[in-house]
Amino acid sequence: MDIIMPQLGETVAEGTVTRWYKKVGDSVKADETLFDVETDKVSTEIPSPVAGIIAEIVIGEGVTAKVGARLAVIREAGDARAASAAPAAKTSAPAAAVPAAPAVQAAPRRSRVDPAERLSPVVRRLIAEHSLDPAQIPGTGRDGRITREDVTDFIARRGAQPAAPAARPAPGPAPVQAGQTLAFNSVRKRVAENMAKSWQTSPHVLQVVEADFLKVDQARAAHGAAWKTREGFSLTYLPFIVRAVSIALGKFPKLNASLTGDGLMLHRRINIGIAVDLNFDGLVVPVLKDVPAKSLPQIAREINDLATRARAGRLRPDEMTEGGYTITNNGAFGTVITAPIINQPQVAILSADGIRKKPVVIEGEDGDSIAIRPVGVLAQSFDHRAVDGSYSAAFLAEVKIALESRNWVQALEA
Predict the structure, then answer these.
(1) pLDDT in tens, 347-398
(2) What is the value of pTM for the model shown?
(3) Rounded distance between C-alpha atoms, residue 156 and residue 267, angstroms
(4) How far apart are CA 113 and CA 296, in angstroms?
(5) Contact 39, 71 (CB under 8 A)
(6) Do residues 324 and 270 make contact, with C-beta atoms less than 8 angstroms apart?
(7) Dihedral sign, CA of 89, 90, 93, 95?
(8) Which residues are catalytic?
């Protein structure tokens, strides 16, 4: 059976094999981790689809290949050719392989690289979380590269178990020296390319509304403490925003769509991507599928699970596909307004910015009054080729109405 480069996102065209867990002649079980692949969207482990013997490895570590390219061959269990084919198989580089990043190719081949170099986002995050010195960690990867297993083994030898991935990125970026030139890693490079392409492709328009989060805060106050004790993570504003957006997308389907030539393809399912920061080294967008069919607690659990596994490099390939709309959550950093760049080929993206207590005019039967309310900013960038401002504004108004009027306490009890 041919093992091919998987599709790890709608706009992902290629990936880099960063590690093979098996060599030619090794046996592998179905669903056992076979190799690691890194793209602009994700760094993840890919399991073997079948049980068998590795007969050939076509794409070596550090080589970039197009989606669908043949990476390896597995002789499935029971195949009489497996035993004879494996010893004779050789690792070769295909003509179709895309060269690795120039900065990596230019470096001379060494038996050991500087441990602080070529760290994947996952490894860098673990090292930062545990305040480790990479120079003290023996690397078992290609050319001495430090792998995630090297870090966790090092932590275990120190007598401590690896900490659970943080709900938010590390408090600050890695220290740098003035005048230093920082080369982009592969994730940062591809994010930069995709953002530039999106900006050049879509005529972006930004619209902003303010929403009163009083009812959301009441639900969080009523259930937040018990939720954290039971679930092990905090109940944030994001699940409520995702639910409100899914309601609005059901009424405004042109924003749950993709541009195809001279037309607009409306998606049948409401799948919402959640932008996840990788410790300031790039972004990935795992996708929450069929949101209207899920309860609010389910949405909260799945968002936390996707974000946690994204930062640990454990997303499955299908969890990066079929997104129709994207939400980026910058509010934890206290931002006021963010103008996000559309995640191609989608036509809109929403930024949930900081929620602050503000004086608000409350209209009542006895006249107006002033109250202190938690007010948040929702900023949507949309592609003006797909819809006009009135359509986008009506959608944002629907999101605002859902956040301000729904019984969120009851929704959490579902």
Answers:
(1) 999 999 999 999 999 988 888 999 999 999 999 999 999 999 999 999 999 9
(2) 0.67
(3) 46
(4) 47
(5) no
(6) yes
(7) negative
(8) 384, 388
